[in-house]
Description:
Blueprint: E1 6-10, H1 17-27, E2 32-34, E3 38-39, E4 54-55, H2 58-66, E5 70-76, E6 79-84, H3 89-93, E7 97-101, H4 104-113, E8 118-123, H5 127-137, H6 142-158, E9 164-167, H7 171-192
Helix pairs in contact: 1-7, 5-6
Amino acid sequence: MANGPLIIVSGPSGSGKSTIIERLLAEETRPLHLSVSVTTRPPRAGEREGVHYHYWPRERFDREVRAGMFLEWADVFGNGYGTLKQEVEPHRQRGVGVVLDIDVNGWRQVKRQCPEAVSIFIRTSSPEELERRLRERGTETEESIQRRLQGARTELSQAPAYDYQVINDHLDAAVAEVRAIVRPLLERQQSHG
């Protein structure tokens, strides 16, 4: 059996990538698994272990990094984040497609190890739209908004290197566009399975 497809989805905070992924997973009838990342930061209100993240103490995270257990990892604002190989490889070996919701640094690391991965960059049509969304959330301090906007500029500079870019100004249209990219990969997998 051929390995299931590996699909990387990136995009700045506020681009709507998590919402698009949730919709894709809810609507897709073929086997598709969202890899749950590890983080050393504490859970936010409403977040659950094994659903949003695996919450690990820093010592365990560092030990697993040294042991080579991560497909990709990074230190972001003092917190460790990473994708465990065991969250990806067993599913792919069973022919299941795996979605990674990771940033551009993670994408670079994964592409080096898995050049066959298909990458999708989610963005808004303008930086102004992204800023409007971040402000509408009402959960960010001004300092946090500015930090996220600076991060978005850096990430957007990498977008042209992705296989696909999807503009998310209208959620239904963006979900349909991502589905149109992912579905043939899953169908190809089923025909080889």
